[in-house]
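Dissemination and training. As part of the outreach component of the grant, students in the summer workshop were shown how a complex can be specified as a set of sequence lines and then modelled as a single object. The example used during the hands-on session is reproduced here so that future cohorts can follow it. Participants entered these lines:
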Amino acid sequence: MEPDRLGFLKMRSPLCNLFYMATTKATVSSAANSSPPKPEYDLEALLRGDEEAFEYLVVQESPRLYRVIFRILGDEEESQNILQETFLQAFQRMDTFRKESKLTTWLYAIGINLARASLRKSKRLSSLNDQDVERMQPSFSKGMFLESPHHWDPLKLAEQSDRHRLVHQAIVKLPEDYKTIVILRDIEEHSTDEVAKMLGITSGAVRVRLHRARGALRSMLDAHFSHSNPSSEGLS
Amino acid sequence: MKLIVMIKTLLGFAPNCEKVNAFLADYMDGTLPEKTAKQFEDHIDMCKCCGPYFEQYRETIDMTRCCGEVKLPEELVEHTLTFLRKNAK
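and obtained this result:
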């Protein structure tokens, strides 16, 4: 690797700084929108170590990648450390990017792997395991529903702030690999194929785990929202 | 129509509740063949259990999607670039 390949970062002119700050603010505020325009990256420039191209990648992807890492870890300081480490590894391993996936898919795979390793190291375990998730799926007898689902109370569903808290609590309880798939597929809205590439599993495996995760989330929320269950027992 | 779907399901010519449930994620991803997807829709329309379950399944996805913003740390990008300046050598 060339020495001080990121020297451009030290040498930003005031004009460049102004442009950079404007771009950063625009990126952060656009992250609040549901579908910000997707930036395009100059792959050839990145592969030959172009500094401006890498800076653009960092500026554009930091907010979204940080959100994914934070949702996996739930710890602001550690999430920022992992974000930085992700870009460092991406920078140092750029020559290993084979264009078999999108650049962002490759980048997110690095970030997710680092976040999961951090989670295992810290031993912050989820409260549910695979067997719990299995038990939270509906039961069938001879292919038919064993029990009819309770209807959800529209009044309880309408309490938006309570709803956010309950959903957040339920997601946090999921086993780590289920939670990661929910974050990537249902929250960040990556495609199933992208999620499969990020996690190194098949698309079918993503759909199976996603389905079980959604079933478990539905079951936990059912304890709160159904007419017959006035308490939030499932989320306590 | 409902009766025909029920008879087909009982005779095994149309998917039952368990099969519909097992392939909900595929159905929502749009990866099922058109004919199978139509059979799923007929079943969900007809079944007193699968109808509400599917509604709640979809509601769960919608609620998950909107489960709150993550507050981005101030100077997030600046800190990342500073870190890279120091370490990417």
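Chain A is about 65% helix and 0% strand. Students were then asked to discuss how this feature might be tested experimentally.
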